[in-house]
């Protein structure tokens, strides 16, 4: 038994290492398969209504590209403005950060005075800290140059082509693929694949609607408190909300930095605090009410799953984590814990 467990552990580690090494190829393929399975129920309805399968598959490909292009075009003005103002924003951030450092140095000075009053002898640890304080700050790393961007462009273009090709051909031939996998794997059937498609599609549509409403709400609230580019922040809030827990946490930190740059005094905390409050209401009441009627998954399992996929494949891993998890539950026959 111990040898079997050890072999299973080694095999799992080998698979994880292979997925890590093959990320440039596997990440767009898995992302495309997940996207295709989400679009599959709509394509099946189109085929049943008399539309030829190649045209339906091409329509799904065009729909996915159109959604991505619309989102990029919506973000482009705000991103261009942020790039244009990057030096000014960086100077403002350095000024705000220096104010925080001065405050922390004041707290540290008070602490050292209290420590020196309690101890008669000097502390080597405080001396080391003072030496580290006296050392000049490290220079920030340089921004990526044009040659780096040009070297990265072919790889990104190749991944986009792999994604588009996988999406089209999977939509076109998924029934044959399901049949082959079902024949080669005992216990699997095409019915389970179709059920997985339906669950993934329903989950994604429900979450997308919730996130869209949430993004609009974040936009309105940030506009009301005077935050620059509220539509940009609302769009990012919509996107990161597809990655439960970790996405909102990173976004809240980004809002804190933006508030530190934009506002003064205690008001710097308002953007992040407002977002956290809205996210808690959405996460604790809205999403469980809508999605929880179909299934409710242990939050610890969700967090570990998302953290693992982000560690493995970065942002793409965070986006596909929940669909892949739902797919695994459906194909293995496991059932999510029903909401009470």
Automatic annotation (TrEMBL):
<feature type="transmembrane region" description="Helical">
    <location>
        <begin position="263"/>
        <end position="281"/>
    </location>
</feature>
<feature type="transmembrane region" description="Helical">
    <location>
        <begin position="149"/>
        <end position="172"/>
    </location>
</feature>
<keyword id="KW-0812">Transmembrane</keyword>
<feature type="transmembrane region" description="Helical">
    <location>
        <begin position="301"/>
        <end position="329"/>
    </location>
</feature>
<dbReference type="Pfam" id="PF01594">
    <property type="entry name" value="AI-2E_transport"/>
</dbReference>
<feature type="transmembrane region" description="Helical">
    <location>
        <begin position="27"/>
        <end position="43"/>
    </location>
</feature>
<dbReference type="GO" id="GO:0055085">
    <property type="term" value="P:transmembrane transport"/>
</dbReference>
<feature type="transmembrane region" description="Helical">
    <location>
        <begin position="55"/>
        <end position="75"/>
    </location>
</feature>
<comment type="similarity">
    <text>Belongs to the autoinducer-2 exporter (AI-2E) (TC 2.A.86) family.</text>
</comment>
<feature type="transmembrane region" description="Helical">
    <location>
        <begin position="231"/>
        <end position="256"/>
    </location>
</feature>
<dbReference type="InterPro" id="IPR002549">
    <property type="entry name" value="AI-2E-like"/>
</dbReference>
<keyword id="KW-0472">Membrane</keyword>
<feature type="transmembrane region" description="Helical">
    <location>
        <begin position="203"/>
        <end position="225"/>
    </location>
</feature>
<dbReference type="GO" id="GO:0016020">
    <property type="term" value="C:membrane"/>
</dbReference>
<protein>
    <recommendedName>
        <fullName>Permease</fullName>
    </recommendedName>
</protein>
<keyword id="KW-1133">Transmembrane helix</keyword>
